[in-house]
Fold these 3 entries.
Entry 1:
Amino acid sequence: MSLNAIRHDWVLSEVMDIFQLPFNDLIFKAQTIHRQYFDANKVQVSTLLSIKTGACPEDCKYCSQSIHHDTGLEKEKLLEVQRVIEEAKAAKAVGATRFCMGAAWKHPTNRDMPYLLEMVKGVKALGMETCMTLGLLSQLQAYALADAGLDFYNHNLDTSPEFYQQIITTRTYGERLQTLAYVREAGIKICSGGILGMGETLKDRANLLIQLANLDQHPESVPINNLVKVKGTPLANEKDIEPFDFIRMLAVARIMMPKSYIRLSAGREQMNEQMQALAFLAGANSIFYGDKLLTTSNPQVDKDNALFLKLGISPEKSQDYSDEVHKDAIVQALTEQVQNNLSSDNF
């Protein structure tokens, strides 16, 4: 069967074979498929705001926001609706067209829902696309968010079903899949991926991608995270993943889900420019843009702009599941960056 076919019947043996291709062959296949569905020099760009930080009851071993780990992160209440809308306005002012809102909890309560719905409506009223990540959802909550105008919902599977219990015990894999099913049924687009570097095996990485690619419809966006090791979490001293193994994960994800946006997500700050360039070559075509990614840092905006300029990449302006910033705003930012570099002293 052709590698570029849209499939939902992947099996472990063939995925392992793809992972183990010579590196140049793997990248060539991924880039060839990528160019059949996307402009290879366009990248989606998202803005993300933490609307409720800390004191999450889940015990995810990687997370700085879990109440089970002493990371020094202070608990914050759900932000006021107007504050969220003001943040969205600021994001739009620099060109963002989608605004993602994340809350640290197991699931939204009935008390929280009216505020969340108003946030969605308020951001939509600005002419922006909306995205949320709120934990588990009930069927009614999914429909309520859809009715309010939510465009995307993020709910990661994190890892393979087999390795999952080594990372999280307070939420089942089946519950995650059920939330994705409710979101899809409600007509909301799905953003779902996983995390590398938690001690998983190559087989676990393959099985994670199989779970995603064998869904009835592929997620519109697949974030691949490189573990951000936070002091106080059980994974703080986990061994770093080999950079080429991370790039392989991106490439295999691109091959298995040709039409999905593959997002280079958390952990990007630890990647040098050369690794990020390889990630784009492997088929990654979406990033988070800004100084913070929920509670962990993200490469500064000017660094992103400078890298885009070096690589000849520009933010995508598509209306279809785009995380882009307006091209004119980015071009202006790039121009200012170049001017600042020319006028500043060398150190």
Entry 2:
Amino acid sequence: MLERHEIEAFLTLAEELHFGRTAERLRVSTARVSQTIRKLERRVGAPLFDRTSRRVALTPVGRRLHEEVRPAWEAIGAAYERAADAGRGLTGTLRAAFTGAAAGQLLAGVEELFRSRVPGCEVVIREAQPGEVAAWLRDGEVDVVLTTLPVPGADAGPVLVREALMAAVPAGHPFARRESVGLADLERVTVVELAGGRAAPGSPGPRAATLHEALTLVGAGRGVLPVGAQTRRYYARPDVAYVPVRDAPRVEWGLVWRAGGETGRVRAFGRAAVDLLSD
């Protein structure tokens, strides 16, 4: 039987056809590579390489051995990687959700990068409403959600995106004519309550289960709604104006998962998210 170091030395030398470069790739000495190849040739009973002072080339015996060993060695490596992935929880299905159109677009990019890295894991994408996130994670409906932070009872990865806070106001509201408003201004108006949304100053107004429903209430003059700046781009409406809230903390987005439920799949998905946004 061939030893692992013999196979690696033979296959690498067959590719490089240079003892020095082979040694560099294997992080051993050139003498060690030469010794390993000579030992292998003695066991085979025939030269595997023709060596001169100017070149290294496979012999017919060496070429045949290379053609038969390389696919088998690659298959062994692939099988090992699949087993390691399974051990780290990187096979199977990852159920990922998002809240809002901007998060959906970002999640699609993360999913594409993740699948290129972990082809053995299927990704199922779902849209969640803000008020559903905590329950979906608690009940195991999804494994990870891209949403605004924080989410009660959930663990979170690093902040991926920060954006300014804006106030969605009726198009005819006095705030709509301002360049910006302050938190103190919001304390004097009625605020539409979006289930699972961020707490805001102001008098509690009608409740909404979805962002579309909340914006419809805003357009109908039932109140104002604090939203992230991306809402102006993805949810433009003729009956709603978006005004910056100049003194508000920025809205933070990130991946969240059930407390204590960070699997290998979730970790790999989180790394893909960070890497995508750092490029």
Entry 3:
Amino acid sequence: MLQSMAALQSLLIGVVLIWSARIKLLDRRAADQVGTSALGTLLGSGRAVPAYRLLGGVELVLGILLVVPPAPVAEPVAASTLAAGFVGYLWYARRAAPGSSCGCLSAKATPVTGRSIARAGGLALAGLLGAVAAGGGYWLSAVVDQPAASVALLLAEVAALVALSPEFDAAWLLPLRRLRARLTHPLRGGSGIPLLASVQQLQLSGAYRQVAALLTSDVREHWLEQPWRMVCYSARYQGRPATAIFAVPAADAAPERVRVALVDDSTGATLLSLTDPAYAS
């Protein structure tokens, strides 16, 4: 069983490297961000893009070698070494150019986080595990011999990689946070009013005035949850990234009834919940 698990790591890492190479070699948006990233700081903006493309080429070659037979020990060891190098680079990037885009698995500008570093570390460990399978069989044999277990393991590992990839948060994490806000309603206690009217109403509220200095974005998203229209802004509270969720009366204009909750972006915990002081009294 361990041999089969180890053999599957070459497939996993190979697919990840090919995906990453596609971004580096084919997506112009990702290359445009490299000059201002930590790679640009390290190599200079003029050499950053060629180095980025070269890395994509290395990833593509190594990814293909990992996916196709045979399966010598050198391939997963090389992948593990490359991933270990990513760990070092991402650690450096987080300190040398905080807020710069990773450029790893998506062209979307996504700052390096602890999850990005953990993902690279996980791939390094997977490469070492894959080396155990060297000489013991190709990954396809493991899939044929134990299809259900192989598919389950690969799906679990892919899910872990996605969870550790901030680039994909918009596809799964933000919808889950929105669903959580709807189900748990941190402000608990058919609208004909346009969004602009709701925004004007909340801006006239005491709740808005209490947190206005904490907001860092315009309206990020909104939805109806009768009798409220929920309006979300990005915010920072005590140095922590958060989401400000305003509950605005959906059926009538009543700024004094507007409420707001600040929800921690990392944990989902409610950091602060406020109403209009005049209405609360």
